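re: ur question from yesterday

yeah so i grabbed the chain u mentioned. its 328 aa long if i counted rite. heres the sequnce exactly as i have it in my notes:
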Amino acid sequence: MANQQKKPLRLLNPFRWDKSAKRDAEAEDTKPTLKRFFVLLYRRFWKLISLNLLMIPMVLPFLLIAILLISAKQTPTETEPVFSVLFGIERLSGSPHSALLIDLFGSQTGIPVYKPVTYIFIGICVLFLIVTFGWQNVGATYVLRGLVRGDAVFVLSDYFYAIKKNLKKGFFLGLLDLVILALLFFDIQYFSGVSGSFFLDFMFFTVCAVAIIYFFMRFYLYLLEVTFELSIGKIFKNALIFTALGVKRNLMAFLGIALLTAIDLGLIALFFPLNIPIPIILPFFYYVSFTSFTSAYAAYPVIDKYMIAPYQKQEATEEIDEGSGETE
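ran it thru and got these structure tokens back, copy pasting raw so excuse formatting
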């Protein structure tokens, strides 16, 4: 009886037994909790940094287009010969006609002037996005799914493997995603600039609501693409369903993304007046991958709960039934 109560020994050296050896570590808790999120974030930190470098081409065209549109010079109306003449007539006569003319001409002051090379460069950026947007999302999402599940991940090879495997459908999914994003952006810009009637205000809030829903749907779109063999229509349908089923996890992910964004913007606002560019440069090394990892960590357990786990359970039941039938 005394021998049965002794602790089991672990073989550390093939030539001797070490009685002071510790027990094997307990199985790790892999439940998708907030604690698990930070554990994975710590373990996969450098892989996320590497992945972020691959994801920069996804957002760089947007940044370049925005910089080109914002930094363009405006029409120098005051230096035009017609402006001084209209201004003089308005000061002398003050007629409604002269006021209308100077208002129409003066409104041109705020219109930016784009050179032909600007349009060419914007066209190149848009074409690059149209061709590669879906592939970049598919490759990044495949790597992120492996990081969330705790799989062994090889960032570069897994990234291009996923693109190769989802070459056709990934392209069309990305194209449709890009079109929807562009339409939502245009609609918000348009309806925010017009108001004065119930219909226009209603349309503005409706478009904003659709944009919020689609923001959360994008958590699931590419995860469904790299995980299941589904048509694009079913991918969007399931993404909408999972947006409702995983509302708590979606909101937690949104809070995490908003917090990281607020910290980055706060650091930029704090250090930019001091001519310190580090807060502007650093997000290029982590922001896109960290926010994408946050959304993938929120979304994948929902997909696993409602699609993967039931399928595995059904498959295991069928195997047991087949085994019992063979035994009989």
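noticed a couple things. DSSP finds twelve helices and two strands in the chain. also The beta strands are 10-13, 16-18.
anyway ttyl
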